[in-house]
């Protein structure tokens, strides 16, 4: 959907058109670029997704070629893993 000089883009699962929409924001503003680079270089995920099994998602995504910066790691009552989305962001998966 057009939005000025940009387009409003959301993605959804091909398995659930009525599921969660993920909005992809442009990083045209220098502050956004600097913030993205800083949190990436510090190893801070830009966002997090809850999953029923981090281990299963880790295996599935690894088999698809996704590069993880943190393998599934138990932290108290949670298990987390972090991957590089190849667009300058780290994404964390979390299982409670």
UniProtKB/TrEMBL annotation:
Entries under InterPro entries matching the protein: Glyas_Bleomycin-R_OHBP_Dase (IPR029068), Glyas_Fos-R_dOase_dom (IPR004360), VOC_core (IPR037523)
UniProt cross-references to PROSITE patterns, sorted A to Z: VOC
VOC domain span: 1-96
Record-given protein name: VOC domain-containing protein
Any Pfam family hit: Glyoxalase
Gene3D superfamilies linked: 2,3-Dihydroxybiphenyl 1,2-Dioxygenase, domain 1
The species this protein was found in: Shouchella xiaoxiensis
């Amino acid at each position: 959907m057009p939005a000025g000089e940009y387009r409003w883009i959301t993605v959804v699962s091909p398995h659930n058109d009525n599921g969660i929409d993920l909005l992809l924001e442009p990083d045209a503003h220098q502050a956004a670029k600097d913030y993205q680079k800083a949190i990436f270089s510090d190893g801070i995920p830009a966002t997090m997704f809850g999953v029923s099994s981090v281990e299963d998602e880790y295996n599935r995504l690894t088999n698809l070629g996704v590069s993880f910066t943190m393998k599934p790691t138990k932290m108290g009552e949670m298990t987390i893993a972090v991957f590089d989305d190849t667009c300058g962001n780290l994404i964390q998966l979390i299982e409670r």
